[in-house]
Amino acid sequence: MKEDLQIKFSHPRHTKTVIANYGRFFVICLFAFSCDSKQELLNQKDYEGPMMRLDSVNRLVTDSAKILLRLQALVEEVYENNNQEWKEGLFLQYYDNFGEVSSTFKSNYAFYDKKQNLYKGVGDVIVTNATTGDELNTEELFWDPQKKEFYTERFVTIHTEDEIHTGEGLTANEDFSSYKILKPAGTFTIDETTTPLPQ
Q1: What CATH topology corresponds to 52-189?
Q2: Whole-angstrom Cα distance, residue 180 to residue 176?
Q3: Single pTM value for the model
Q4: How do residues 110-129 score in pLDDT, each as one tens digit?
Q5: Where are the domains of the chain?
């Protein structure tokens, strides 16, 4: 009976082995959990939305203390690659060498591609020459600030003081003092002296 009550103590070397085995098991579990977490992170889509949002934008663009452009928008979003988007419309005023407004640009939506250095206006795009009042209307227009020109392949309507010009495609300089319709469709004369017909 004394033999039954005898407690056997394990050898210290066996205790170290058991602790080492538990330690390995714990590390393997941790590693497996860590790999799952990393895999979940890798499977997540990269954020592609704007990095910055500005409200009530009114910005002057200058060069050597000379005003070149005034940019106005209700909302401006800037992306990681420095592209910019104006989902609620964009209004631009272009200035001449004397600091006077030479032309304006307005669109319902606009996007700036930084890599191409190109602006794109979409939806009821209107460009107006401030001196003559000539006005361009189209649904899509590109502005290249490097070349200082507008262009489109879409249908265009140009209102001058006494004529309306229509056609497809256009190139024009930035102040809209010179333009060319690529495929003219027609020119209509506005006769303001004509008396209205009686009703």
Answers
A1: lipopolysaccharide transport protein A fold (2.60.450)
A2: 10
A3: 0.73
A4: 999 999 999 999 999 999 99
A5: 11-43, 52-189
